[in-house]
Amino acid sequence: MLDIAFIAHDRKKDEIVNFVIAYEHVFQGHNLFSTGTTGKRIMEATKLKIHRFMSGPLGGDQQIGALVAQNEMDLIIFLRDPLMAQPHEPDIIALLRLCDVQGIPVATNVATAEMLVRALDRGDFAWRELVDKYKPEEV
Hints:
Helix content is 50%, strand content 14%. The protein has seven helices and five strands; from the N terminus they run βααβαβαβαβαα. The radius of gyration is 14 Å and the shape is globular.
């Protein structure tokens, strides 16, 4: 069972809802998290239970980032809107940086999300063992 987070900017919310509907069978049985409105929309469209944090601009990205920093998140699907400036851009960059530091797979578009979820569906998601194997020791 993995810990998976969903985040989507306003103009990407329909896209993430449709994506989760398409792969609802894959997400069942995992611990699911989301920022506020995104999680609400997904739960309204599916039978999935999602732990909702605050809206992204109100701190939801940082709440998910805290789980990443504690190495308590396994996968993030974050559909970003690259054509719209976000008022909480520093929070977004901090979250993506934490994912890089911890080696957490993060999809920022549907193409990458599709690849990660298909790997998850195949059971081909042993990245934690690889990351731990090659991660340098902390000083």
